[in-house]
Amino acid sequence: MAAFKKSPWTPEEDMQLVTYIRRYGIWNWSQMPQHAGLSRSGKSCRLRWMNYLNPEVRRGNYTQEEDEIIINMRHVGIGWSAIAARLPGRSDNEIKNRWHSHLKKRIANNVVEIMEPEMEEIESTMDTLMINDHPNDFFAPEVPKLEEVYVDYPISPYMLNNIDVSSSSNINIPPAFGTSVDPHISFWREPYLLEDVCGIDQYATYVDPVFGMPRAEDWFGESFYPYNYLTRYTEAVAHNTTRFT
DNA sequence: AACTCTCACAACCGCAATGCG
DNA sequence: CCGCATTGCGGTTGTGAGAGT
Q1: How many angstroms separate the CA of A141 from the C1' of C1?
Q2: pLDDT per residue over A163-183, tens digit each?
């Protein structure tokens, strides 16, 4: 098995992953990288998406209210993922970082006063978690007839009608059903659209005439990458260096 | 200007949980 | 029930930026 790449993600890799997910949805993390042309593990791709590339993720600029929620929920032993569920747009990893780099220290220095969370708040949080864990106890979703939706590819008719498959040569269509790498789509793994998640289409459909895919700055703007990452990367490519620092 | 230290955060790892045949 | 594959969680590490000396 080829070794997976282990290093900071490049803008090109980000674009490959986002482009792929935008076109085909998330159908199987472990197999997606191969079809997206990425030398990354599925785990790495999932983490990158969940913590960084997902347009739902907000980064930085924590409000006092958010900090207090983190502190209070952590104080009673609630896990990172449950706290993330309580804070829309925040990933568990980011909250964890926030805790370790800011809040823990502030508490140690008694900069913030730890308040006993209101019982109602805790019960409300627990109710939410119960609903998330046992959705069928609360409502029964209508299961779509997948055989009518998916014919050759595990993507929806909407996506089939709105993608230009020929525009990107280095991204492969997911495998068809019945092949050796049949993705075994189930209801719970149904691919979803970014539009469904975000409400709006946040990504440009512009395709670079030379490279076939949008440039990073077209997608995210230079501020997307911290510490002038994009600038340094671009310079490294221009000077044909193998590693940029 | 050069070096060291600290901070912030991206990303990795190991393990647990879950799903599926 | 079992074994394997996949996904999710939490702890930890690595690295770049900026502050301090």
Answers
A1: 30
A2: 333 333 334 444 433 333 333
For residue A174, what are the CA distances in angstroms to A34, A163, A202? 10, 13, 23
DSSP state of A52: I
Residues in contact with strand B, defined as Cβ under 7 Å from any of its atoms: A 5-9, 40-41, 43-44, 47-48, 51-52, 59-60, 93-94, 96-98, 100-102, 105, 133, 184, 186, 188-189, 226
| Predicted TM-score of the model (pTM) | 0.59
Q: Which nucleotide is nearest to A81 (CA to C1')?
A: C9
In this structure, are residues A69 and A87 in contact, taking their beta carbons and an 8 Å threshold?
Answer: yes
Q: Which residue is nearest to nucleotide C17 (CA to C1')?
A: A227
Alpha carbon distance A165, A19 (integer Å)? 11
Predicted confidence (pLDDT) per residue in A61-97, tens digit: 788 888 888 888 887 778 888 888 888 888 888 888 8
Which residue stretches of chain A are H helix?
11-24, 32-36, 42-48, 64-75, 80-86, 92-98, 104-108, 119-133, 146-149, 157-162, 194-198, 216-219, 229-238
